[in-house]
Amino acid sequence: MKYIIVGLGNFGGYLAARLTDLGHEVIGVDSKEERVEPLKDAITHAITMDATDVHAVKTLPLKDCHVVVIAIGENFGASIMVTAIFKQLKVKRLISRSINKVHETVIKAIGVDEIIHPEEDSAERMAKRLQMKGVLDSLDVSDDYNIIEVKVPERYVGLTIAETKIRLDYNINILTLIKMEEKLNIFGIKSKIKKVAGVVTPETKIEEGDILLMFGHIKDLQEILSLE
Predict the structure, then answer these.
(1) How is the chain split into domains, by residue range?
(2) Which of 8, 71, 92, 141 is 20 to 30 Å from 197 at the Cα level?
(3) Has residue 228 got a pLDDT over 60?
(4) Which residues form the RCK C-terminal domain (predicted)?
């Protein structure tokens, strides 16, 4: 897919680089050269441009772009102007970052397709992770259901997926196993990386040090995590 990311601060820059890593074509735009320069080798195209200038924006390949993300995070006025310009130019899908409640009201009125709250979402995700014992990471599927990463409890080491009876006892699905492997980084220092085991079967055996990726209702996940 083809993306345009406007605003290459911490959030926008990371998003642009990550989408590029995943194999997408990304054009990153920012008015500040010091934000554009570090990303020139990390994303498909990094451009210094004033996106509040409609004539400049029209030079971008808007018809070929699948998603435009307005990731401006500190300039209220610029974010509204840029969002309005891309809306006026009828891009296929327009996503805008919310700076505050007033800003969100305005961009909703402009008619964006989606509003994101990166700081709030990150804080909410961390809060949920911290409140559940042993959780390394979590992903909200809905208000009631989560996917979590958790270190395998000692009681399950050496058992197969079927032998744990996790689905039968707690109505929780083990989606896959993650194993931590040591590799040398570019500085010659050992670091641990995650290796996903792929699709597991009832016969897949759980080993010490594995991480379980589990899906279920939050109350069921909390119940299994509360066990010693």
Answers:
(1) 2-116, 122-226
(2) 141
(3) no
(4) 149-228
